[in-house]
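Appendix C. Worked example: Saccharopine dehydrogenase
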Amino acid sequence: MAKVLIIGAGGVSNVVVHKCAQLPEVFSEIVLASRTESKCKAIAESLSRPIKTAQVDADNVPELVALIKAEQPDLVINVALPYQDLHIMDACLEAGVDYLDTANYEPLDTAKFEYSWQWAYQDKFKNAGITALLGSGFDPGVTNVYTAYLKKHHFDEIHYLDIIDCNAGDHGKPFATNFNPEINIREVTANGRYWENGEWVETAPLSVNRVFDFPADIGPKKIYMMYHEELESIVKHFPDIKRARFWMTFSDNYLKHLEVLGNVGMTSIEPVMFEGREIVPLQFLKALLPDPASLGPLTKGKTCIGCLAQGVKDGKPKTMFVYNVCDHQECYREVKSQAISYTTGVPAMIGAKMMLEGKWKKPGVWNMEQYDPDPFMDDLNKYGLPWELVEIDASVMEG
Ligand code: NDP
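Step 2, the predicted output written as C-alpha coordinates:
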Protein backbone atom coordinates (compact mmCIF):
# COMPACT_ATOMS: atom_id res chain seq x y z
CA MET A 1 0.00 0.00 0.00
CA ALA A 2 1.80 3.13 -1.16
CA LYS A 3 1.25 6.57 -2.59
CA VAL A 4 3.00 7.70 -5.77
CA LEU A 5 3.35 11.11 -7.37
CA ILE A 6 3.66 10.79 -11.15
CA ILE A 7 5.06 13.84 -12.97
CA GLY A 8 4.33 14.42 -16.68
CA ALA A 9 1.13 13.67 -18.57
CA GLY A 10 2.29 12.57 -22.03
CA GLY A 11 2.21 9.24 -23.85
CA VAL A 12 4.38 7.31 -21.39
CA SER A 13 2.61 8.79 -18.38
CA ASN A 14 -0.75 7.61 -19.72
CA VAL A 15 0.53 4.01 -19.63
CA VAL A 16 2.23 4.32 -16.23
CA VAL A 17 -0.93 5.75 -14.69
CA HIS A 18 -3.14 3.02 -16.23
CA LYS A 19 -0.78 0.26 -15.12
CA CYS A 20 -0.42 1.64 -11.56
CA ALA A 21 -4.19 2.04 -11.36
CA GLN A 22 -4.58 -1.66 -12.25
CA LEU A 23 -2.65 -2.59 -9.07
CA PRO A 24 -4.40 -0.87 -6.14
CA GLU A 25 -2.81 -3.36 -3.72
CA VAL A 26 0.58 -1.73 -4.49
CA PHE A 27 -0.35 1.75 -5.72
CA SER A 28 -3.13 2.58 -3.27
CA GLU A 29 -2.99 6.34 -3.98
CA ILE A 30 -1.95 8.08 -7.20
CA VAL A 31 -1.36 11.79 -7.73
CA LEU A 32 -0.71 12.89 -11.33
CA ALA A 33 0.89 16.31 -11.78
CA SER A 34 2.14 18.08 -14.89
CA ARG A 35 2.67 21.46 -16.50
CA THR A 36 -0.76 21.29 -18.15
CA GLU A 37 -3.26 19.97 -15.63
CA SER A 38 -5.98 19.44 -18.25
CA LYS A 39 -3.84 16.60 -19.67
CA CYS A 40 -3.71 15.00 -16.20
CA LYS A 41 -7.48 15.31 -15.92
CA ALA A 42 -7.98 13.70 -19.35
CA ILE A 43 -5.89 10.70 -18.22
CA ALA A 44 -7.72 10.58 -14.87
CA GLU A 45 -11.09 10.48 -16.62
CA SER A 46 -10.08 7.46 -18.68
CA LEU A 47 -9.40 5.35 -15.55
CA SER A 48 -11.77 3.07 -13.67
CA ARG A 49 -10.66 4.38 -10.25
CA PRO A 50 -10.25 7.94 -9.00
CA ILE A 51 -6.84 9.61 -8.80
CA LYS A 52 -5.84 13.13 -7.79
CA THR A 53 -4.38 15.63 -10.29
CA ALA A 54 -2.29 18.79 -9.82
CA GLN A 55 -0.48 21.47 -11.80
CA VAL A 56 3.28 21.76 -11.40
CA ASP A 57 6.22 23.21 -13.28
CA ALA A 58 8.87 20.56 -12.67
CA ASP A 59 11.63 23.06 -13.51
CA ASN A 60 10.60 25.09 -10.48
CA VAL A 61 12.19 23.23 -7.55
CA PRO A 62 10.46 25.16 -4.70
CA GLU A 63 7.06 24.57 -6.38
CA LEU A 64 7.85 20.86 -6.69
CA VAL A 65 9.08 20.59 -3.11
CA ALA A 66 5.86 22.21 -1.89
CA LEU A 67 3.78 19.70 -3.88
CA ILE A 68 5.82 16.71 -2.65
CA LYS A 69 5.63 17.90 0.97
CA ALA A 70 1.88 18.51 0.69
CA GLU A 71 1.16 15.09 -0.87
CA GLN A 72 3.82 13.07 1.00
CA PRO A 73 4.18 10.29 -1.60
CA ASP A 74 6.42 7.26 -1.01
CA LEU A 75 7.91 7.67 -4.49
CA VAL A 76 8.09 10.26 -7.28
CA ILE A 77 7.86 8.76 -10.80
CA ASN A 78 9.36 11.17 -13.34
CA VAL A 79 7.85 10.70 -16.80
CA ALA A 80 8.19 14.34 -17.85
CA LEU A 81 11.15 15.09 -20.13
CA PRO A 82 14.87 14.38 -19.56
CA TYR A 83 15.45 18.14 -19.07
CA GLN A 84 13.56 17.93 -15.75
CA ASP A 85 15.53 15.02 -14.21
CA LEU A 86 17.92 17.06 -12.06
CA HIS A 87 15.24 19.46 -10.86
CA ILE A 88 13.03 16.58 -9.78
CA MET A 89 15.99 14.82 -8.12
CA ASP A 90 16.78 18.06 -6.23
CA ALA A 91 13.18 18.31 -5.07
CA CYS A 92 13.17 14.64 -3.95
CA LEU A 93 16.35 15.27 -1.96
CA GLU A 94 14.86 18.28 -0.25
CA ALA A 95 11.62 16.46 0.55
CA GLY A 96 13.33 13.13 1.42
CA VAL A 97 11.41 10.98 -1.09
CA ASP A 98 12.55 8.18 -3.47
CA TYR A 99 12.90 8.92 -7.21
CA LEU A 100 12.50 6.99 -10.50
CA ASP A 101 12.88 8.05 -14.14
CA THR A 102 13.02 6.54 -17.64
CA ALA A 103 15.69 8.62 -19.42
CA ASN A 104 19.01 10.20 -18.49
CA TYR A 105 19.30 13.94 -17.90
CA GLU A 106 19.92 16.06 -20.97
CA PRO A 107 20.77 19.76 -20.91
CA LEU A 108 18.31 21.67 -23.09
CA ASP A 109 21.03 23.30 -25.20
CA THR A 110 23.28 20.25 -25.91
CA ALA A 111 22.22 16.83 -27.19
CA LYS A 112 24.50 14.99 -24.75
CA PHE A 113 23.51 11.60 -23.45
CA GLU A 114 25.41 10.59 -20.35
CA TYR A 115 24.80 9.63 -16.75
CA SER A 116 27.56 11.82 -15.26
CA TRP A 117 25.17 14.47 -13.97
CA GLN A 118 22.89 11.96 -12.26
CA TRP A 119 25.66 9.69 -10.98
CA ALA A 120 27.06 12.81 -9.27
CA TYR A 121 24.01 12.61 -6.94
CA GLN A 122 25.15 9.22 -5.53
CA ASP A 123 26.48 10.55 -2.20
CA LYS A 124 23.66 13.05 -1.75
CA PHE A 125 21.03 10.31 -2.11
CA LYS A 126 23.01 7.91 0.07
CA ASN A 127 23.42 10.49 2.83
CA ALA A 128 19.74 11.38 2.66
CA GLY A 129 18.83 7.68 2.95
CA ILE A 130 16.76 7.73 -0.25
CA THR A 131 16.88 5.70 -3.46
CA ALA A 132 16.98 6.87 -7.09
CA LEU A 133 16.33 4.30 -9.83
CA LEU A 134 17.52 5.55 -13.23
CA GLY A 135 16.21 4.55 -16.65
CA SER A 136 13.27 2.29 -15.82
CA GLY A 137 11.79 2.20 -19.34
CA PHE A 138 12.44 -0.42 -22.04
CA ASP A 139 15.68 0.84 -23.47
CA PRO A 140 17.15 1.91 -21.11
CA GLY A 141 15.43 -0.26 -18.57
CA VAL A 142 14.39 -3.73 -19.62
CA THR A 143 17.50 -4.04 -21.81
CA ASN A 144 19.67 -3.47 -18.71
CA VAL A 145 17.67 -6.07 -16.79
CA TYR A 146 17.88 -8.55 -19.71
CA THR A 147 21.69 -8.16 -19.67
CA ALA A 148 21.84 -8.72 -15.90
CA TYR A 149 19.58 -11.79 -16.24
CA LEU A 150 21.68 -13.31 -19.04
CA LYS A 151 24.83 -12.78 -17.00
CA LYS A 152 23.27 -14.18 -13.81
CA HIS A 153 21.79 -17.35 -15.31
CA HIS A 154 23.30 -18.11 -18.71
CA PHE A 155 26.87 -16.80 -19.04
CA ASP A 156 30.07 -16.83 -17.05
CA GLU A 157 31.24 -13.93 -19.21
CA ILE A 158 29.43 -11.84 -21.82
CA HIS A 159 31.91 -10.67 -24.47
CA TYR A 160 29.70 -9.08 -27.13
CA LEU A 161 26.36 -7.39 -26.53
CA ASP A 162 24.02 -6.09 -29.24
CA ILE A 163 20.84 -4.34 -28.14
CA ILE A 164 18.37 -4.37 -31.01
CA ASP A 165 15.23 -2.23 -31.15
CA CYS A 166 12.73 -2.79 -33.93
CA ASN A 167 9.52 -0.89 -34.48
CA ALA A 168 7.77 -2.65 -37.34
CA GLY A 169 4.62 -0.62 -36.75
CA ASP A 170 2.99 1.63 -39.35
CA HIS A 171 0.94 4.72 -38.43
CA GLY A 172 0.13 5.71 -42.01
CA LYS A 173 1.49 9.28 -41.62
CA PRO A 174 4.21 10.55 -44.00
CA PHE A 175 6.50 11.42 -41.05
CA ALA A 176 5.97 11.19 -37.31
CA THR A 177 7.94 10.09 -34.26
CA ASN A 178 6.66 7.55 -31.78
CA PHE A 179 7.64 9.49 -28.70
CA ASN A 180 8.41 13.12 -27.99
CA PRO A 181 9.70 14.35 -31.43
CA GLU A 182 12.30 16.68 -29.97
CA ILE A 183 13.86 13.98 -27.77
CA ASN A 184 13.62 11.37 -30.53
CA ILE A 185 15.25 13.50 -33.25
CA ARG A 186 18.03 14.73 -30.93
CA GLU A 187 18.88 11.08 -30.25
CA VAL A 188 18.72 9.84 -33.84
CA THR A 189 20.72 12.71 -35.37
CA ALA A 190 23.54 12.44 -32.80
CA ASN A 191 26.81 10.68 -33.72
CA GLY A 192 26.79 6.90 -33.31
CA ARG A 193 29.04 5.46 -30.60
CA TYR A 194 29.85 1.94 -29.47
CA TRP A 195 32.11 0.36 -26.88
CA GLU A 196 35.07 -1.70 -28.03
CA ASN A 197 38.07 -2.94 -26.05
CA GLY A 198 37.75 -0.41 -23.26
CA GLU A 199 36.98 2.68 -25.31
CA TRP A 200 34.20 4.46 -27.18
CA VAL A 201 34.35 4.43 -30.99
CA GLU A 202 32.44 7.24 -32.76
CA THR A 203 30.61 6.83 -36.08
CA ALA A 204 28.76 9.35 -38.25
CA PRO A 205 24.99 9.37 -37.54
CA LEU A 206 23.29 6.19 -38.87
CA SER A 207 26.30 5.36 -41.07
CA VAL A 208 26.53 1.66 -40.10
CA ASN A 209 23.73 -0.76 -40.88
CA ARG A 210 22.95 -4.40 -41.52
CA VAL A 211 19.94 -6.69 -41.84
CA PHE A 212 18.57 -8.61 -38.85
CA ASP A 213 15.92 -11.30 -39.13
CA PHE A 214 13.37 -10.60 -36.38
CA PRO A 215 11.13 -13.24 -34.80
CA ALA A 216 7.31 -13.30 -34.60
CA ASP A 217 6.63 -12.88 -38.34
CA ILE A 218 8.36 -9.45 -38.38
CA GLY A 219 11.11 -10.88 -40.59
CA PRO A 220 14.29 -9.25 -41.94
CA LYS A 221 14.70 -5.49 -41.34
CA LYS A 222 17.54 -3.04 -41.78
CA ILE A 223 19.02 -2.02 -38.41
CA TYR A 224 21.19 1.08 -37.89
CA MET A 225 23.85 1.48 -35.24
CA MET A 226 23.47 4.47 -32.95
CA TYR A 227 24.40 5.53 -29.44
CA HIS A 228 21.97 4.73 -26.67
CA GLU A 229 22.39 5.68 -23.05
CA GLU A 230 22.19 2.22 -21.45
CA LEU A 231 25.49 1.28 -23.13
CA GLU A 232 27.32 3.58 -20.70
CA SER A 233 26.04 1.98 -17.50
CA ILE A 234 26.05 -1.59 -18.85
CA VAL A 235 29.74 -1.55 -19.85
CA LYS A 236 30.59 0.03 -16.50
CA HIS A 237 28.76 -2.64 -14.52
CA PHE A 238 29.75 -5.61 -16.72
CA PRO A 239 33.46 -5.05 -17.37
CA ASP A 240 33.74 -8.46 -19.17
CA ILE A 241 31.96 -6.93 -22.15
CA LYS A 242 34.48 -6.32 -24.95
CA ARG A 243 32.03 -4.78 -27.40
CA ALA A 244 28.57 -3.28 -26.86
CA ARG A 245 26.44 -1.78 -29.59
CA PHE A 246 22.89 -0.49 -30.00
CA TRP A 247 20.82 -0.89 -33.18
CA MET A 248 17.46 0.48 -34.25
CA THR A 249 15.26 -0.06 -37.30
CA PHE A 250 14.19 2.91 -39.41
CA SER A 251 12.10 2.83 -42.55
CA ASP A 252 13.59 4.30 -45.73
CA ASN A 253 10.74 6.81 -45.65
CA TYR A 254 11.61 8.00 -42.11
CA LEU A 255 15.27 8.39 -43.05
CA LYS A 256 14.45 10.28 -46.25
CA HIS A 257 12.36 12.82 -44.31
CA LEU A 258 14.98 13.12 -41.60
CA GLU A 259 17.72 13.76 -44.18
CA VAL A 260 15.76 16.53 -45.89
CA LEU A 261 14.75 18.12 -42.58
CA GLY A 262 18.40 17.96 -41.45
CA ASN A 263 19.66 19.44 -44.72
CA VAL A 264 17.39 22.47 -44.43
CA GLY A 265 18.28 22.99 -40.77
CA MET A 266 14.95 21.99 -39.23
CA THR A 267 16.48 19.46 -36.80
CA SER A 268 18.94 21.96 -35.33
CA ILE A 269 18.78 22.91 -31.65
CA GLU A 270 20.69 26.16 -32.28
CA PRO A 271 18.32 29.14 -31.89
CA VAL A 272 17.67 31.27 -35.02
CA MET A 273 15.98 34.66 -35.37
CA PHE A 274 12.56 34.50 -37.06
CA GLU A 275 10.38 37.57 -37.54
CA GLY A 276 12.02 39.37 -34.67
CA ARG A 277 12.06 36.52 -32.15
CA GLU A 278 14.37 33.66 -31.38
CA ILE A 279 13.11 30.17 -32.20
CA VAL A 280 14.73 26.72 -31.99
CA PRO A 281 14.11 24.95 -35.33
CA LEU A 282 13.63 21.52 -33.72
CA GLN A 283 11.07 22.91 -31.27
CA PHE A 284 9.22 24.54 -34.17
CA LEU A 285 9.30 21.23 -36.07
CA LYS A 286 7.84 19.48 -32.99
CA ALA A 287 4.90 21.89 -33.13
CA LEU A 288 4.21 20.84 -36.74
CA LEU A 289 4.55 17.07 -36.31
CA PRO A 290 1.73 14.81 -35.12
CA ASP A 291 1.45 14.45 -31.35
CA PRO A 292 2.78 10.91 -30.67
CA ALA A 293 -0.31 10.27 -28.51
CA SER A 294 -2.49 10.81 -31.60
CA LEU A 295 -0.77 7.86 -33.34
CA GLY A 296 -2.19 5.36 -30.86
CA PRO A 297 -5.42 4.49 -32.71
CA LEU A 298 -3.62 4.53 -36.10
CA THR A 299 -0.61 2.32 -35.47
CA LYS A 300 -0.64 -1.31 -36.58
CA GLY A 301 2.10 -3.94 -36.37
CA LYS A 302 4.62 -5.02 -33.78
CA THR A 303 7.73 -3.98 -31.90
CA CYS A 304 10.56 -6.31 -30.95
CA ILE A 305 13.31 -5.19 -28.58
CA GLY A 306 15.96 -7.54 -27.28
CA CYS A 307 19.53 -8.23 -26.22
CA LEU A 308 21.78 -10.53 -28.19
CA ALA A 309 24.69 -11.72 -26.09
CA GLN A 310 27.72 -13.75 -27.11
CA GLY A 311 30.06 -15.15 -24.50
CA VAL A 312 31.08 -18.28 -22.66
CA LYS A 313 29.42 -20.66 -20.24
CA ASP A 314 31.39 -23.52 -18.68
CA GLY A 315 34.22 -22.87 -21.11
CA LYS A 316 32.00 -23.17 -24.21
CA PRO A 317 30.97 -20.36 -26.58
CA LYS A 318 27.29 -19.45 -26.44
CA THR A 319 24.95 -16.93 -28.12
CA MET A 320 21.52 -16.04 -26.73
CA PHE A 321 18.76 -13.62 -27.69
CA VAL A 322 16.23 -12.44 -25.11
CA TYR A 323 13.41 -10.28 -26.42
CA ASN A 324 9.87 -9.03 -26.14
CA VAL A 325 7.36 -8.67 -28.96
CA CYS A 326 4.59 -6.17 -28.44
CA ASP A 327 1.57 -5.48 -30.66
CA HIS A 328 0.57 -1.82 -31.16
CA GLN A 329 -3.15 -2.53 -31.49
CA GLU A 330 -3.31 -4.78 -28.42
CA CYS A 331 -1.62 -2.02 -26.39
CA TYR A 332 -4.14 0.49 -27.67
CA ARG A 333 -7.03 -1.78 -26.72
CA GLU A 334 -5.69 -2.09 -23.17
CA VAL A 335 -4.51 1.43 -22.28
CA LYS A 336 -5.23 3.67 -25.32
CA SER A 337 -1.53 4.01 -26.22
CA GLN A 338 0.68 2.55 -28.93
CA ALA A 339 3.47 0.07 -28.13
CA ILE A 340 6.33 2.60 -27.79
CA SER A 341 4.64 4.32 -24.85
CA TYR A 342 3.46 0.92 -23.56
CA THR A 343 6.89 -0.70 -23.60
CA THR A 344 8.24 2.31 -21.64
CA GLY A 345 5.32 2.75 -19.23
CA VAL A 346 5.02 -0.88 -18.09
CA PRO A 347 8.69 -1.12 -16.93
CA ALA A 348 8.31 2.25 -15.18
CA MET A 349 5.40 0.78 -13.21
CA ILE A 350 7.35 -2.42 -12.48
CA GLY A 351 10.44 -0.47 -11.37
CA ALA A 352 8.22 1.55 -9.02
CA LYS A 353 6.66 -1.68 -7.73
CA MET A 354 10.14 -3.15 -7.07
CA MET A 355 11.05 -0.07 -5.03
CA LEU A 356 7.78 0.12 -3.10
CA GLU A 357 7.92 -3.60 -2.26
CA GLY A 358 11.45 -3.08 -0.94
CA LYS A 359 12.95 -5.54 -3.46
CA TRP A 360 14.96 -2.82 -5.17
CA LYS A 361 15.80 -0.30 -2.53
CA LYS A 362 19.08 0.94 -1.12
CA PRO A 363 20.13 4.52 -0.51
CA GLY A 364 21.99 5.97 -3.48
CA VAL A 365 21.58 6.33 -7.26
CA TRP A 366 21.29 3.07 -9.20
CA ASN A 367 20.94 1.79 -12.72
CA MET A 368 18.59 -1.13 -13.37
CA GLU A 369 21.29 -3.78 -13.88
CA GLN A 370 22.66 -3.18 -10.38
CA TYR A 371 19.66 -4.94 -8.82
CA ASP A 372 18.58 -8.61 -8.87
CA PRO A 373 16.90 -9.07 -12.28
CA ASP A 374 14.70 -12.04 -11.27
CA PRO A 375 11.68 -10.34 -9.63
CA PHE A 376 11.59 -7.74 -12.43
CA MET A 377 11.74 -10.45 -15.12
CA ASP A 378 8.85 -12.28 -13.39
CA ASP A 379 6.76 -9.12 -13.36
CA LEU A 380 7.43 -8.44 -17.06
CA ASN A 381 5.67 -11.73 -17.78
CA LYS A 382 2.79 -10.86 -15.44
CA TYR A 383 2.10 -7.27 -16.47
CA GLY A 384 2.12 -7.19 -20.25
CA LEU A 385 5.67 -7.56 -21.59
CA PRO A 386 6.36 -11.33 -21.75
CA TRP A 387 9.83 -12.29 -22.94
CA GLU A 388 11.36 -15.17 -24.89
CA LEU A 389 14.87 -16.51 -24.55
CA VAL A 390 16.49 -18.51 -27.35
CA GLU A 391 19.93 -19.88 -28.10
CA ILE A 392 20.94 -18.84 -31.62
CA ASP A 393 23.76 -19.02 -34.13
CA ALA A 394 26.50 -16.44 -33.43
CA SER A 395 26.78 -15.67 -37.16
CA VAL A 396 23.56 -13.56 -37.08
CA MET A 397 25.54 -10.46 -36.13
CA GLU A 398 28.55 -11.03 -38.37
CA GLY A 399 29.37 -8.82 -41.30
P1 NDP B 1 5.61 13.55 -23.97
O1 NDP B 1 6.20 14.73 -24.64
O2 NDP B 1 4.44 12.85 -24.56
O3 NDP B 1 5.20 13.95 -22.45
C1 NDP B 1 6.02 14.71 -21.62
C2 NDP B 1 5.15 15.29 -20.52
O4 NDP B 1 6.00 16.01 -19.61
C3 NDP B 1 4.11 16.28 -21.02
O5 NDP B 1 2.90 16.05 -20.33
C4 NDP B 1 4.71 17.62 -20.63
O6 NDP B 1 3.77 18.64 -20.34
C5 NDP B 1 5.40 17.26 -19.33
N1 NDP B 1 6.39 18.27 -19.02
C6 NDP B 1 7.36 18.79 -19.83
N2 NDP B 1 8.03 19.75 -19.18
C7 NDP B 1 7.48 19.84 -17.94
C8 NDP B 1 7.72 20.67 -16.81
N3 NDP B 1 8.68 21.60 -16.81
N4 NDP B 1 6.94 20.50 -15.72
C9 NDP B 1 5.96 19.57 -15.69
N5 NDP B 1 5.68 18.77 -16.73
C10 NDP B 1 6.42 18.91 -17.84
O7 NDP B 1 6.83 12.53 -23.75
P2 NDP B 1 6.75 10.93 -23.63
O8 NDP B 1 5.62 10.55 -22.75
O9 NDP B 1 6.87 10.36 -24.99
O10 NDP B 1 8.13 10.62 -22.87
C11 NDP B 1 8.24 10.75 -21.46
C12 NDP B 1 9.65 10.35 -21.02
O11 NDP B 1 9.87 8.99 -21.36
C13 NDP B 1 10.78 11.14 -21.70
O12 NDP B 1 11.76 11.42 -20.73
C14 NDP B 1 11.34 10.17 -22.71
O13 NDP B 1 12.69 10.41 -22.99
C15 NDP B 1 11.16 8.86 -21.96
N6 NDP B 1 11.16 7.67 -22.83
C16 NDP B 1 11.92 6.60 -22.42
C17 NDP B 1 11.95 5.44 -23.19
C18 NDP B 1 12.67 4.24 -22.69
O14 NDP B 1 12.49 3.15 -23.25
N7 NDP B 1 13.48 4.32 -21.65
C19 NDP B 1 11.24 5.35 -24.48
C20 NDP B 1 10.40 6.50 -24.77
C21 NDP B 1 10.40 7.62 -23.97
P3 NDP B 1 2.98 19.46 -21.50
O15 NDP B 1 1.89 18.52 -21.86
O16 NDP B 1 2.52 20.69 -20.83
O17 NDP B 1 3.97 19.69 -22.62
